[in-house]
Specification:
12 helices, 3% strand, 434 Repressor (Amino-terminal Domain), two-stranded antiparallel ribbon, mainly alpha
């Protein structure tokens, strides 16, 4: 069972999702608004009170406890249903991408044609999807692990291959700021394992560079990198291999 403080925080989120005010909760419980505010500020809820508020919010107590429990553990992979909902809405996908890259709300509003109330609405959806924890002041806490990856067989990765990577590799990488390296060869299993470790280290170092750069107050531009490895022989060559 989650800690009582986690239950109270989750109850606050539920009220925000359901757009239930303290005044409405007070009427439903037969209390004053001041009493309800005091309950939430002190966390001095009886189990009966929590059940009553859940009933007002049309939420089972077990579901409330489950929601609170899942917020205490980070995830390295989303469910199929979560990914489907994200890619089904282009704006939600954009906000998800920005949030995963730790872009503050004020930067999103400043750099994109989105009103703050609309961005907050999408943040609430991400909170409901358990991707973020939406804190007071619309601050965001990620609920996914820093080594989070999209599902290998999921809709987001399918979208990346179909849209983003096709556009990314359409360039000829001739700009001075571009970098492109491609090399391959026939290798042993041991060498393949070494290459995999090297690729992981290179990717981790690139991610660390981006992380360190987040707080630097200078003009910035979009950038992307791809680090990939797989056992592969070009089909135009493999047809000449001996069986």
């Amino acid at each position: 069972m989650p800690q009582p403080s986690a239950i109270v925080l989750e109850l606050k989120r539920v009220l925000k999702e359901r757009e239930l005010t303290y005044a409405e909760v007070a009427r439903g419980l037969g209390l004053s608004v001041a009493s309800v505010k005091r309950l939430f500020s002190t966390g001095a809820f009886s189990l009966k009170r929590i059940e009553e508020i859940c009933e007002l919010a049309k939420l089972e107590l077990a579901e409330l406890a489950d929601r609170a429990r899942r917020r205490t553990t980070s995830t390295t992979k989303l469910s199929l249903a979560q990914e489907k909902e994200i890619v089904a809405d282009p704006r939600l996908f954009l906000i998800t991408w920005l949030v995963l890259n730790r872009t503050p709300l004020e930067h999103i509003v400043r750099e994109y044609d989105l009103a703050e109330r609309d961005v907050v609405r999408y943040l609430i959806r991400l909170d409901r999807l358990r991707i973020i924890d939406l804190l007071p002041g619309n601050r965001v806490k990620l609920l996914v692990d820093r080594h989070f990856t999209w599902r290998a067989d999921g809709p987001v990765q399918a979208y990346l291959f179909e849209k983003l990577l096709r556009e990314f590799f359409a360039a000829r990488f001739e700009h001075p700021a571009d970098a492109f390296f491609f090399h391959g060869g026939r290798v042993s299993e041991a060498a393949l394992a070494q290459l995999k470790r090297a690729v992981r280290h290179a990717a981790a170092e690139c991610v660390e560079i981006i992380e360190r750069d987040r707080g630097v107050p200078v003009a910035k531009t979009g950038a992307a990198f791809v680090v990939a490895l797989r056992p592969w022989t070009y089909s135009g060559f493999s047809r000449f291999l001996r069986g």
